[in-house]
Amino acid sequence: MTLKEEEKRTLLDMAKQVIRSALDEKDVPDFDIISPVLREKRGAFVTLKKKGQLRGCIGYIEGIKPLYRTVMEMAVAAAFQDPRFPPLKRGEFEQLDFEISVLTPLEEVTDIEDIEVGHHGLYIVKGFRSGLLLPQVAVEHHWDRETFLMETCYKAGLSTRAWKDPDTKIYRFSADVFGDH
């Protein structure tokens, strides 16, 4: 699924407005969502960067809510609930770059050759541990396939070689990634 430019702008505007409303302690505005695509249940992540550095990133892996609702909720979560960062302050808002990643459904990987760096994101699960890295992360860090697998294991709190274990599940997904940067 590829979003139209107008749909991308709508999602970016919504993400900004819900964070601005939270910072100003105002009610979230009502949005009139006409596009059927934005009403589809889709997984999505909202990434916030400040001066090129990660400032928050949270999302749903799978489509449990309509896309527009997911983006609204994940924007607030990325700004105020990412445990890696303190809650966003009002003075930081104007310094933010917004990026939204709309995910395709997960596909289990049986051959790592089926992972295309730059096109696929990874989700690795072993026991109770799991980790996800979006497709753009591997590109930003100039990782090859094996490094991408190792880093996803590391994010899951696993050994960096855990991707080779037969009881480790590897999933891939694609994402429509867009932003205002």
Walk me through this protein's architecture.
The radius of gyration is 17 Å and the shape is globular. Helix 1 packs across helix 2. By secondary structure, the protein is of the alpha+beta class. It folds into 2 domains: 99 residues, Glycoprotein, Type 4 Pilin (2-Layer Sandwich), CATH 3.30.700; 68 residues, 2-Layer Sandwich (Dna Ligase, domain 1), CATH 3.30.1490.150. Strands 1, 2, 3, 4, 5, 6 and 7 form a 7-stranded antiparallel sheet that branches. The model has no long low-confidence stretch (mean pLDDT 94). The protein has 4 helices and 7 strands; from the N terminus they run αββαββββααβ. Strand 1 and strand 2 form a beta hairpin.
Q: Strands, helices and their partners?
A:
Elements lengths: L4 H19 L20 E7 L2 E8 L6 H14 L15 E8 L3 E2 L11 E7 L2 E5 L1 H6 L4 H11 L13 E11 L2
Antiparallel strand pairs: 1-2, 1-3, 3-7, 4-7, 5-6, 5-7
3D shape = globular
**Count of DSSP helices?**
4
The CATH architecture term of the largest domain is 2-Layer Sandwich
- Helix percent reads 25-40%
Largest sheet: 7 strands, antiparallel
Unreliable spans: none
Taken as a percent bin, the fraction of beta residues is 25-35%
Q: Please, what is the CATH homologous superfamily of the largest domain?
A: Hypothetical protein ph0010, domain 1
Secondary-structure element string: HEEHEEEEHHE
Write down the domain tally. 2
| Number of E-type strands | 7
CATH class of the largest domain: Alpha Beta
Structural class: alpha+beta
Q: What is the fold named in CATH at topology level of the largest domain?
A: Glycoprotein, Type 4 Pilin
Radius of gyration: 17 Å
- The CA-CA distance between the termini, in Å, is 22 Å
What does the oligomeric state look like here?
A: single chain
